[in-house]
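Next up, sample data:
>
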Amino acid sequence: MLKLSGENAPPSKCYVSQGTLPNSFDPEQPPSKKKPFSAIMNQPLTHTLDLILPAELYRVIWAEIESKIGKIQYSQVIMPLSALLEGDFFNTYIKSGIFTVRSFISSAEFWNILMLSEGRPGVDNIYSLKDAVEVNLRLPSMVHGKKGFERIVWACKNVLVDAVSWLFYDFGKGNGEATARERAFLKKIQRQMNASLFEQSESGEVPLAQHHPSTKSIPPIKTEVMSVLVPPLDEPLKSTSSTAFEDEAVDLLEWLGLVALESPRVQHNDSVDPYLCRYGIPNEDRAVNSDLTKVRWSGLIPAPWIRSLFIECL
């Protein structure tokens, strides 16, 4: 295998969960510590999501699923770091206590607002958490007029002055991904604030509007993948040793990747010189010829929305 990644690049990881899901659970309160739910929530942001279904099943269930999961929308806004510390934006989104700023990924139990500094490390101007001084802006001392806070404001206005592109996701717009527990938490915070998180300011605008954001939608893109050899997916991985189990899981992951790429190598009528490609379908002797449908989303996809999709597909 060719080593294509750099020495400092993080290793690729594949998380595999195998087990029996409960016969029934409350979709409004899904398990938070059990896999695969915890595996989904431990990756807060995803750029590309593929859902692969039998074509016949897709035609039967997709309209209902799509109506329940809602659409994904986020905003793109260009502003300097200092804008986070000013006026209504600071008071509404940060001091509320349910605001999350992310340059790269960290974890959070409850989200209402998520912001991501957009860009490519080493190429674009981005704000990264690497080698950073961490400051809790929700402390009572983090207010204008306090010496420590004013130092932060000064640094943002005189040193970290570049305006960068931020991706802003609003978990409070009812996209359908928040559970009952999370919604109750957000309502409690709103009552404590005695105001809506998106209450208009005196100027008649929500705080984000003054930065002129552009709204981005993530539509699902459907692709038919016809005549695919599908290995037996209803059988659990039976290997007892960790190495053999890993091999079986990687084989299945490779097959899924080729289906997502719409590769001819997984098609029933594929014929390729083995000198050029030695790939073989896992358990090919028991594989079934089937038509599949791939649904893809690409953009800023939060973990709660993916969890909602997973639950609706069960």
